[in-house]
Amino acid sequence: VLEDRAAQLMNSSIITRGKIDELSRDYWKIRTAYFNYKPYQSPKITTRIMGFDKMLARLENNLEASNKDKIKKIRSLYEEFRSAYENKDEYAVMNLLSEDWDSGDGTSPGDLEENLRNMFSVYDSIDCVISNLNVTRQPDQRFTVNYEIKITGRIFETGITREEKSSVSEEIVFENKQPRIHKTLQGVFWYRH
After folding, report:
1. Counting Cβ atoms within 10 Å, is residue 157 exposed (0-12), middle (13-18) or buried (19+)?
2. How far apart are CA 125 and CA 117, in angstroms?
3. CA distances from 86 to 110, 128, 159 (A)
4. C-alpha torsion angle, residues 52, 53, 54, 59 (rounded to 10)
5. Which site in 9, 50, 99, 145 is 20 to 30 Å from 167, CA atoms measured?
6. Is residue 139 packed enough to be buried (19+ CB in 10 Å), middle (13-18) or exposed (0-12)?
7. Are strands 143-155 and 160-175 parallel, antiparallel or unpaired?
8. 83-121 per-position pLDDT tens digit
């Protein structure tokens, strides 16, 4: 039964720490019971049990590779975000949010879209600098991203420059294998009125 569960997990597109830990706990219970009870030991079963160690190691490696790939995609998401912001492309920015995006300050997706549209039409140029980007995997297939953002808008005709800085914390989910900003937990990535 454990081998079947492990094989299913190996073939799954979603390998989680929780699933591997659960499988490992069950395996160690069986392994300990088996090696503590000598009358039922056989070379064939011993070989299968020892082979399971290798299968768990492969699952760990697959999880690690999956995490690295997802973190790379998340970093690319924020590069796309920066580029869309500087290109004043509200639709591209909004496309990087999940369908049920939520903000810690009560801003709705409609409010955000309107805010971006207004900001992008008022300023002749916008610089967006994202720094100290830190990605942390959560146990439930989500990621938390923390970063500093500095938005500088310029109106050339009047010489007005406005700069806004914020420390942002966001929750990232994967939709159709692509990262999306699911929640802005803290801070803002848009000008406040």
Report:
1. exposed
2. 13
3. 20, 6, 18
4. 90
5. 99
6. exposed
7. antiparallel
8. 999 999 999 999 999 989 999 888 889 999 999 999 999
Best CA proximity match to 188, nearest among 104, 93, 89, 94 = 104
Structure-block tokens of residue 168: 């942002």
Q: What is the pTM of this model?
A: 0.73
Pairing outcome for strands 178-186 and 160-175? antiparallel
Calpha distance 13→22 (Å, rounded): 17
Q: Quick one: 66 exposed, middle or buried, by C-beta within 10 A (0-12, 13-18, 19+)?
A: middle
Question: Two tokens at 130?
Answer: 């994202």
Region 34-51 average pLDDT: 77
| Per-chain mean pLDDT for the chain | 86
